[in-house]
TrEMBL record:
Signal peptide: none annotated. This is PiggyBac transposable element-derived protein domain-containing protein. Residues 1-64 are annotated as: Disordered. InterPro entries: PGBD. Residues 104-463 form the PiggyBac transposable element-derived protein domain. It comes from Littorina saxatilis. Residues 35-45 have a biased composition (Low complexity).
Length: 578
């Protein structure tokens, strides 16, 4: 049974009043408010205000209090922490041969087998849709797609994300200010629109019953999600510090997965990412309240599921106050995993002294200990509460802006504040990278936004693998933009679905000495329209031009062999057929 006091109930999680939240414009939603809403980077909590410190008396050290009813004491002892490692961290790219390129790294994560599956399901879905048309024909889908075309389609999406024009047709515009030749040469606008319409990931013959409350709501993208989660772990060993946070996939269409958040509309994705690099390790799309309920709350279950691949390896996890509770810290510690998090003051089992204490001034703190867990209160602009199992109670400091001195000055803080400030931003870093040049295309179908989320996450992770593996890069500063451009080139690979026009036949200059000696020959290549029939507007019974493989060797014009060429003998060519 779900406990509303142990973790935030899901009705409150689905939305809240934005007017109550002091939004920081340059921060993700999860960093807006420490004590009431979500995670915080402590360097942004407030500016130094000497007026507050001048008006308040100096803080007097409180004497140690007896153990409270939850077992917390105000006297702390060193925390026992098993060192992380030794392990070989970073990319695992043994599958690659010599001199791998950007596409090789991408296909480590986005498997070629997934491309083949997309081809199969796209062609099947296209046939189903076209069969329902009145005449059973779509003039812009005369042939099935191929793996080469699907890869080229994804390459085009990357280029569109870089150029980012308002409408799709602008990429094919003849206006030099708008058109993108790198897109135009790959496929026609109509072919692109049809691929965008028909692209499919799952077999509709196996759709789950909508009446089944336990159905997989992510059936349309399930194989893609599972592939990404597996390959992300398979090819990267994370460092000690991992952050867990929420990400939002913007979406305004109709779906039970959509919820209201300050982003403002979208689908929530729980993410675990390496703190140092932003490499996305695991993710989970939130689909609403689970039918089987939850014992310790939604936040507890999310953290335990996302961190389960790292149990027993002594990693340090960082997450915000939506997820944290005393029970979660204890359960993680039992799995050989340490944690550090902000915590809401209404959580069950926190020290009584975290709520009932005298007013603190800026930089002052209180610390309580229960077994191997510390509960800390630190005052910045307001009280900020922390739970941690990965550090002892040691003095440290963070830099804050002093309005009086017009400079950043050191503010005392417990060591937990410094650790949280340094390592909580992994998911934010991953989100930031995913936001650059993303491949999201407007659609009414929710699963296409999730497809773009996975595709962009694969690109970002592939860039991290490439950056840490390849020493001889094309540039000294090889940025994510450079990687995306090169990856698009490899995905397109010279592919073009445009019809190649036959080369124009060059006009032959007629020498006066040759007049009257025209010779009938058979031209190589396809038939061309007879010039005489064309001038006389003759057509076949089906309305097509009369064509012939024969013509004049001097004039290089086509004529019907038995009827029109004899009339041409001795004539001077006056028109060229192209």
């Amino acid at each position: 049974m779900e406990s509303s006091s142990e973790s935030e109930n899901e009705e409150h999680f689905v939305g809240f009043d934005i007017a109550d939240i002091p939004v920081r414009p340059d921060a993700p939603e999860s960093d807006i408010d420490v004590s009431d809403v979500s995670s915080v980077h402590t360097s942004d909590l407030s500016d130094w205000d000497d007026r507050n410190s001048d008006s308040e008396s100096d803080f007097e050290e409180q004497a140690p209090v007896p153990t409270d009813r939850f077992g917390w004491a105000s006297v702390t002892t060193p925390i026992a922490i098993t060192p992380f490692g030794p392990r070989v961290i970073g990319p695992k790219t043994d599958d690659l041969g010599n001199n791998p390129n950007q596409l090789d790294f991408f296909f480590l994560l986005f498997k070629p087998a997934m491309i083949d599956s997309i081809v199969t399901q796209t062609n099947k879905y296209a046939r189903e849709k076209i069969a329902n048309k009145p005449n059973g024909i779509d003039p812009h889908w005369r042939e099935d797609t191929t793996a080469e075309e699907v890869k080229a389609f994804f390459g085009v999406l990357i280029l569109m994300g870089i150029h980012n024009l308002p409408r799709d047709d602008m990429y094919w515009s003849a206006d030099d200010r708008l058109g993108v030749p790198g897109v135009n040469k790959v496929m026609s606008l109509k072919r692109y629109q049809k691929l965008k319409e028909f692209i499919h990931l799952a077999d509709n013959d196996h759709l789950p019953d909508p009446a089944d409350v336990n159905r997989d709501r992510l059936f349309k993208v399930r194989d893609l999600l599972d592939m990404a989660n597996q390959s992300f772990l398979e090819h990267y060993t994370p460092d000690c510090d991992i952050s867990i946070d929420e990400a939002m996939v913007a979406f305004k269409g109709r779906s039970t997965l959509r919820m209201y958040k300050p982003i403002k509309w979208g689908m929530k994705v729980w993410c675990a990412a390496e703190s140092n690099t932003g490499y996305l390790l695991q993710f989970e799309v939130y689909t609403g309240r689970r039918a089987d309920g939850t014992q310790h709350g939604l936040g507890h279950d999310v953290v335990m599921r996302l961190s389960s691949p790292f149990f027993g390896l002594h990693h340090h996890l960082y997450f915000d106050n939506f997820f944290s509770s005393v029970t979660l810290m204890t359960d993680l510690l039992a799995e050989g995993t340490y944690a550090c998090a902000t915590v809401r003051s209404n959580r069950v089992g926190l020290p009584v002294g975290m709520k009932q204490h005298r007013k603190l001034t800026k930089g002052q703190s209180l610390v309580f200990q229960k077994d191997n867990t510390l509960a800390s209160v630190w005052h910045d602009k307001r009280d900020v509460n922390f739970l941690s199992t990965n550090c002892s109670n040691e003095d440290n400091s963070v830099l804050r802006w002093d309005r009086t001195q017009q400079a950043r000055v050191a503010v005392p803080c417990p060591s937990v504040v410094k650790l949280y400030d340094q390592h909580m931003g992994g998911v934010d870093n991953s989100d930031q990278m995913r936001g650059y040049y993303n491949t999201v295309q407007k659609s009414h179908k929710y699963w296409r936004y999730l497809m773009s989320f996975v595709f962009d996450a694969c690109i970002n992770n592939a860039y991290i693998l490439y950056d840490q593996t390849v020493l001889d890069k094309p540039k000294t500063r090889y940025a994510l933009l450079d990687f995306r451009l090169d990856l698009a080139d490899h995905l397109i690979g010279g592919f073009s679905s445009r019809k190649k026009l036959a080369p124009k036949r060059k006009a032959q200059i007629v020498n006066e000495a040759n007049i009257g000696v025209h010779t009938l020959i058979k031209f190589d290549g396809r038939k061309r329209a007879c010039i005489t029939c064309k001038n006389l507007r003759r057509q076949t019974p089906t309305g097509r031009a009369v064509e012939s493989s024969y013509g004049c060797g001097i004039c290089q014009l086509n004529f019907c062999r038995d009827t029109c060429f004899p009339q041409h003998l001795g004539a001077v060519p006056v028109e060229e057929i192209v």
